[in-house]
Write a structure and sequence with these properties.
The structure holds two protein chains of two kinds. By secondary structure, chain A is α+β, with helices and mostly antiparallel strands. Chain A folds into two domains: 186 residues, no CATH class; 193 residues, no CATH class. Chain A has 13 helices and twelve strands. In chain A, strands 2-3-10-5-7-6 form a six-stranded mixed barrel. In chain A, strands 8-9 form a two-stranded antiparallel ribbon. In chain A, strand 2 and strand 3 form a beta hairpin. By secondary structure, chain B is of the alpha/beta class. Helices cover 32% and strands 28% of the residues of chain B. In chain B, helix 3 crosses helix 4. Chain B starts with a strand and ends in a 7-residue tail after the last helix. The chains are: A alpha+beta, B alpha/beta. At the A-B interface, helix 1, helix 10, helix 11 and helix 13 of A face helix 2 and helix 3 of B. The complex binds adenosine-5'-triphosphate (ATP) and magnesium ion. Magnesium ion (MG) binds next to helix 1 of chain B.
Chain lengths: 423, 246
Amino acid sequence: MKLYDSFRSALQSLVVNKLRSALTMLGVIIGVAAVIAMVSVGNGASASVQATILNLGSNLVTVQPQFGNDQGLKGAGAQAQNLTLDDMRSIQNQLGDGIAAAEAEQGTGRWQVTAAGQNWNTQVTGVTEDYPIVRDWKLDSGEFFTTSDLNVNAQVAILGTTTAQNLFGDADAVGQTIQLRQVFGGDRGGGRARILNFRVVGVLTTKGSTFGFSRDDQIVVPLTTAQHVLTGRLNIVNSIVIKATSSDTMDATTSDVNNILLQRHNISDPASADFTVTNQNDTLAALSSVTGTFTLLLGAIGGISLLVGGIGIMNIMLVSVNERTREIGIRKAVGARRGDILTQFLIEAVALTGLGGVLGILLGWAITEVVHRIPQAASLPLLITSGTVIIAVGVSVAIGVVFGLYPAMRAARLHPIEALRYE
Amino acid sequence: MNQSVVQLRGITKTYHIGRDITVNALRAVDLDVGAGEFVAIMGPSGSGKSTLMNVLGCLDVADGGTYLLAGENVGKLSDDKLAGIRNKHVGFVFQTYNLLSRLNAIENVELPLIYGGDRHARRQRALAALEQVGLGDRIHHRPSELSGGQQQRVAIARALLNDPSMILADEPTGNLDSRSSAEILAIFQRLNEAGKTVVMVTHEPDVAAHCKRIVRMRDGLVARDELVPHPRRAEDEIAAGIGAAE
Ligand SMILES: Nc1ncnc2c1ncn2[C@@H]1O[C@H](COP(=O)(O)OP(=O)(O)OP(=O)(O)O)[C@@H](O)[C@H]1O
Ligand SMILES: [Mg+2]
């Protein structure tokens, strides 16, 4: 029997039972749409997490102090030490061109900021001169401060775009003066609030937000200024961030940094280090395994509805074989072989699931489009990859074969006389 | 009677109903049908006529004995080989027509060509077969839009399509009035005159009287086998305005 004839008779019988075919197909349509929509949400979430991590700067190796269980610094026996600006300078000196750049940071908490009659409240962080390089963050206007500013604890500030906008509107912020006033414990010194003047020397470009926190609403100042003028915590930094020359050298850089700091802190046993070195690649890998699991889970939920759709197909095909027993008998009486009957019913099942699969992809795509219109999800890139589409169609056709096979085999095995006698 | 189309020797067929009831539908049937014969098979209800026809038409396989169809032993063939024989060598006509209700007349007639033979001249051959049975003007009618006699003629056209060695008909006129019966018989006689072998089961002596030979069965055996000296001619009866069975 020619495939063309199989297709024709399969389509004919699907058309005869339009409503039934449509309802059966609906199971597959919903299943495939669910897989497509779910997986695209998953893929979107993982792409968004990935982008967020890389938004903090690429190829980063981060050093942070390692705190022990009892609030003290770790380091059995040996005196635990803070991370310091000298640690960072030492890394810069020893690794030289082996790294792209390095910087150290100290957070100073939130401050009340006033300028040009405007009031604002934001985060102030002390950083070092290579911050723009390490964070891949250029300036919109002005110049970033330099080592000479660090050397003299200069009271200069760089503003995030949101901060600049809120304090100065559309006017140029560079060259203006802002006043910082501590929000918490600001009048510790006998009820007299400290007011500190800073000169704005630059405004950063817009960066967006990381995990819901806007990165454009902040002020950065020289690290030494933060230590001496804002916090008084002189010989300590919260983190040292090193930018490796490329993704490939990150592992080498990680171990170099580790060695330098172990030596400087006089620690012989790496297990008792008073700092931790984190490699951004490891973070990305860990996160992508989490989001991968998440995507798999969502896909599995869709897969279950696809399975239910498949069982619906099998059910309807069994009914159809039963109803058409006489037809099968007639076809066999005029010379249809087992394989002819088998292909006829298989094609019928595959036509149902294949068409269902295609419609399901369209529905899934429509769903992701609608989800995209929801404001809360707008930042989530919803990715329908060609892989997802191929898998969805492949799986739905496979479901047609798998769930159509048993009914088709039952039809093919019917004895012609018994089939003809069937009432 | 020249060379044999059908040669049956000691054919048996036993049905089992439940565990202990057995029905010997055919006990030891010997039968030869030569090319160009027109045979009526008669006998009381339950004597095994339909069972014999199913074996002849390769719709069913005998339990014992040998069956040579055009010289080939079909007793040991696989299901698919039997399907091929049903497709090419046998044209089967049923009492209940057995047309596919979803298909129109010409599509029903084409059916055997879907499963074998060359699909090239499919339409033309189906049309020619329908014209042969006088239904050239009804090709797009569904079975439900045709009379019983017309449906049976579509079924005959279908049986003719692959130019089989033999036409088998199990009570083809059983559901028809005398006028339609005469038309069916006239077609069979015309086919037979053109050289086709025809074997037909019937209960009615008037119908059997149109055949050249009558085989009578009883209890799964051939009881009598006789030639009809002067078969009646259905065409003449139609022309004279009387039905075959009246
Ligand atoms: N599928 C079957 N299962 C069990 N017994 C059967 C089956 N088919 C036929 N028989 C039995 O075999 C015997 C012969 O049946 P068959 O149909 O050949 O008779 P028949 O001569 O065609 O009768 P009728 O003139 O009524 O059509 C009967 O006793 C019948 O009950
Ligand atoms: Mg019978």
